[in-house]
């Protein structure tokens, strides 16, 4: 999978695009693909749907998981196609072991109808299926996925029910990216999850204690091959939510962009540029597969919110896709009150390099 991920992202050259007008988000349309309804030519499209979650099975086993469908476009001899890639990851938090599988699909044209541009409806048969439906008068997301790769066999059969509204990143859902490109982005921070997960033939049923999931959908004309990032989906027991990301240049390892998107316990939304909060990285773990040192602990300080948090990996060995991604424990203080919760964290660094010399900001 490590090779597939990097091959996919480096298929696309780095281009410089002009500033583009804002298109107001509209749901359920913008839950679908963006072959249309976007202020840039289709061939510039980078898009993905992503879900991470944590759940305790009916047998008492606690797992975290994520799945993503990447759907970048490219121009092949005047015909614009996409090359979808699905990845699945499962971390056994009790046994502290992570598993990952992926599948790179054949190139498709949007008129084939496998990914709708009118609503969330993605259908690659038994390999990946995701659709939003109305069930018992409530919005639900059906997810079915199955990938077998390199001795691991993972399948999902899940039902996700939103428990929070769409959270538009950067307040209006649009944020500037490098080289005058843009990214549309929204999050659903809490979704109840039930169903079943299978790992190498063992079924984990999730019904008695529904789990909690987070959904991201991001698209635009941005180019991911020139930048790395750190991303955190923080959920605290007091209701605070944080979608925090930092983007840096691969060559200089300098942070060039970033934003903390925070929902406070009282519902207020705050959007804090990266220069207005502080991050300290520590407790590095060297990944021998990627030859990268990943920080296992991140300390955050948001002075204007009187919020200080520390996010620490539940266990180090959660890199299975060519970048570190996994469950972390979060603790700290909001005002004078102690807080705790968890996050799912993603670290995409240059390879190979030793980032113990990361300059921070």
Explained architecture:
This protein is mostly beta strands and about 350 residues long. It has two domains: about 220 residues, AttH-like domain (AttH-like fold); about 140 residues, Beta Barrel (AttH-like fold), CATH 2.40.370.10. Helix content is about 0%, strand content about 55%. Strands 1, 2, 5, 6, 7, 8, 9, 10, 11, 12, 13 and 14 form a twelve-stranded antiparallel β-sheet that branches. Strands 18-17-16-15-23-22-21-20-19 form a nine-stranded antiparallel β-sheet, with no helix packed on it. Strands 3-4 form a two-stranded antiparallel sheet. It starts with a helix and ends in a 13-residue tail after the last strand. The N terminus and C terminus are likely disordered.
What spatial form do the alpha-carbon principal axes imply? globular
CATH superfamily of the largest domain: AttH-like domain
Number of domains: 2
Percentage of residues in helical conformation: under 10%
Query: What's the CATH C level of the largest domain?
Result: Mainly Beta
Quickly give the structural class.
Answer: mainly beta
Q: Which spans of ≥5 residues are poorly predicted at pLDDT below 50?
A: 3-18, 351-361
Mean pLDDT reading: 88
Mind summarizing the main beta sheet?
Answer: 12 strands, antiparallel
CATH architecture of the largest domain: Beta Barrel
Q: How many helices in DSSP terms?
A: 1
Number of strands: 23
């Amino acid at each position: 999978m490590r090779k597939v991920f990097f091959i996919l992202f480096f298929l696309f050259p780095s281009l410089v695009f002009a500033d583009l007008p804002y298109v107001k988000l509209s749901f359920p349309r913008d839950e679908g693909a963006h072959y249309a309804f976007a202020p840039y030519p289709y061939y510039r499209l980078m898009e993905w749907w992503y879900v991470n979650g944590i759940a305790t099975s009916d047998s008492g086993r606690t797992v975290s998981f994520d799945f993503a469908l990447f759907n970048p476009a490219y121009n092949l001899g005047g015909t614009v196609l996409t090359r979808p890639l699905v990845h699945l990851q499962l971390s056994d938090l009790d046994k502290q072991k992570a598993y990952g599988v992926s599948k790179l699909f054949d190139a498709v044209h949007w008129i084939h109808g496998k990914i709708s541009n009118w609503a969330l409806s993605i259908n690659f048969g038994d390999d990946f299926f995701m659709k939003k439906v109305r069930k018992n008068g409530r919005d639900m997301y059906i997810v079915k996925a199955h990938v077998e790769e390199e001795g691991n066999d993972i399948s999902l059969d899940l039902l996700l029910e939103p428990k929070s509204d769409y959270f538009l990143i950067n307040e209006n859902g649009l944020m500037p990216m490098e080289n005058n490109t843009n990214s549309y982005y929204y999050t659903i921070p809490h979704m109840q999850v039930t169903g079943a997960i299978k790992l190498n033939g063992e079924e984990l049923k999730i019904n008695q204690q529904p789990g909690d999931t987070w959904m991201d959908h991001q698209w635009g004309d941005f180019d991911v091959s020139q930048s790395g990032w750190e991303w955190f989906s923080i959920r605290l027991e007091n209701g605070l939510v944080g979608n925090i990301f930092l983007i840096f240049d691969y060559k200089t390892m300098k942070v060039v962009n970033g934003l903390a998107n925070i929902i406070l316990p009282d519902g207020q939304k705050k959007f804090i540029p990266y220069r207005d909060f502080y991050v300290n990285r520590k407790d590095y773990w060297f990944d021998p597969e990627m030859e990268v040192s990943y920080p296992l602990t991140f300390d955050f300080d948001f002075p204007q919110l009187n919020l200080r948090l520390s996010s620490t990996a539940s266990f180090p060995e959660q890199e299975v896709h060519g970048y570190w991604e996994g469950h972390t424990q979060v603790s700290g203080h909001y005002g004078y009150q102690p807080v705790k919760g968890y996050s799912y964290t993603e670290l995409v660094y240059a390879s190979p390099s030793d980032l113990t010399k990361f300059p921070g900001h």
